[in-house]
Amino acid sequence: MLSQIARSARSGFTLNTKGRSRLAQHIRPFATVESNTPRVQPTPSRTRATPKSHDRATFTIRDGPIFSGKSFGAASNISGEAVFTTSLVGYPESLTDPSYRGQILVFTQPLIGNYGIPSATRDEYGLFRYFESPNLQAAGVVVADVAEQYSHWTAVKSLGEWCAEEGVPAVSGVDTRAIVTYLREQGSSLARITIGEEYDADQDEAFVDPEQINLVRKVSTKAPFHVSSATGDYHVAVIDCGVKENILRSLVSRGASVTAFPYDYPIHKVAHHFDGVFISNGPGDPTHCQDTVYHLRRLMESSQIPVMGICLGHQLLALAAGARTIKLKYGNRAHNIPALDRTTGRCHITSQNHGYAVDSSTLPSEWKEYFVNLNDHSNEGLIHQSRPIFGTQFHPEAKGGPMDSAYLFDMYLENVSRYHKSQAIFQPERENRPSPLLVDLLSKERVGVVPTTGMENLLRMGGAGQETAKAASAA
């Protein structure tokens, strides 16, 4: 298994002398994470940081209204897709969610930032306790009112200070009710944030559509990494499309060590070394991930291994099954969306963050709809009629809450356990526990993921923005 992973990994994971010396800093003497051997976290790069700006700021929706406010983040101009969330709490988790890459996040909650930003503390698994990834992922932040003075025992800095450090512009003092009303009526729209400059209609060509870019490629690890569990014997392969820390935590806390692979890794070639396959959340249009869809289709054709997908992972699972996806008018981003379990008739309050959905009318006969959204009646889940494969559009791990549907991880691990036991009967020599050598050689962090820079700071005047957009799309 180790040789297969090493041969297929991205650049930066070759096991030559130089590579071994680079990886030596991660080597640990045991295969499990102990409390006194936390995962090594590289010092965050602050090359994107700018002085905190309090200049005039303009939030412009393409072919729509212009809103003037005040900057409280980085002094940089960006372009992206404007979306809104109705979540009342959990803004550190939302802003570090890789699914928001390339998007300008508008908060409907009138006051944001009152409990500040916590430290990058890690838990017993070496995972971030309060963040969903190492960096702020949204391209920009828009709020009605920001709390410059914060109060919370975990806080170490203000929201504005954090945005400035991460190079992300933020705007306050705008009518977010009017913005959300427009987005609900017109749908998610391209927008930009301009700091300290007057709006110029001639610059409209500088708007960049992140949906034309393969955002998953930007947030996915470039080589496998590993998170150990000290409480169980299972080993799960995670296809990292922008996996959240709490998804990893939800697996390892239930006894499954995790090896995460790049989004386009040929998972069907190594699945026999694992007890389950998990497809993570991620940003953007699922149809950009054709390699992932192909590998999942090959996996389901060649293996009976349990599979679970969340959010983008759910959509990729549907595409691999032969269904289609659609873009919603303005998506679902909130912590209080009701989803009906079609198998039990029970309703769960769920956390969601997506702009695309599965068209349940296109599901093949061997699949059925698992959950449905009670607000807009869009699909929220699918399940195979006879095999241990299912996916949910919402987030059962729900960092920030609610936890109504966390039992789905228990259900997945039950499938993993049954598969593990059956394989032990038919292949008694099979050993799926991660070897100490594999654990020591693999990174303990996402590899080669570049932090967001506001759609690469694509707001270059005139046609330069378009040329840069093309380059970013090809990258």
What keyword list fits this structure?
alpha/beta; about 475 residues; single chain; about 25% strand; 7-stranded mixed beta barrel; 8-stranded mixed sheet; disordered C terminus
Short summary of the structure?
Helices cover 24% and strands 25% of the residues.
Question: Can you tell me about this structure?
Answer:
Helix content is 24%, strand content 25%. The protein has 13 helices and 22 strands. It has helices spanning 2-8, 17-23, 91-95, 159-166, 176-186, 215-219, 245-252, 290-302, 312-321, 407-426, 436-441, 454-457, 464-474, and strands at 56-61, 66-71, 78-85, 103-107, 111-112, 117-118, 140-142, 145-146, 155-157, 170-172, 189-195, 225-227, 234-240, 256-262, 276-279, 307-310, 324-341, 347-359, 367-369, 371-373, 381-384, 389-392. Strands 12-14-13-15-16-22-21-19 form an eight-stranded mixed β-sheet, with helices on both faces. Strands 1-2-10-7-4-3-11 form a seven-stranded mixed barrel. Strands 18-17-20 form a three-stranded antiparallel β-sheet. It is globular.
Structural classification: alpha/beta
The neighbouring-strand order within the major sheet is 12-14-13-15-16-22-21-19
Outline type: globular
Q: What helical percentage do the residues reach?
A: 10-25%
- Beta content: 15-25%
Number of strands: 22
Helix run count = 13
Compute the separation of the termini in Å: 30 Å
Largest sheet: 8 strands, mixed
Instruction: Show unreliable segments.
Output: 6-46, 454-475
Chain-wise SSE layout:
Elements: H1 2-8, H2 17-23, E1 56-61, E2 66-71, E3 78-85, H3 91-95, E4 103-107, E5 111-112, E6 117-118, E7 140-142, E8 145-146, E9 155-157, H4 159-166, E10 170-172, H5 176-186, E11 189-195, H6 215-219, E12 225-227, E13 234-240, H7 245-252, E14 256-262, E15 276-279, H8 290-302, E16 307-310, H9 312-321, E17 324-341, E18 347-359, E19 367-369, E20 371-373, E21 381-384, E22 389-392, H10 407-426, H11 436-441, H12 454-457, H13 464-474
Parallel strand pairs: 3-4, 4-7, 5-8, 7-10, 13-14, 13-15, 15-16, 16-22
Antiparallel strand pairs: 1-2, 1-11, 2-10, 3-11, 6-9, 12-14, 17-18, 17-20, 19-21, 21-22
Helix pairs in contact: 8-9
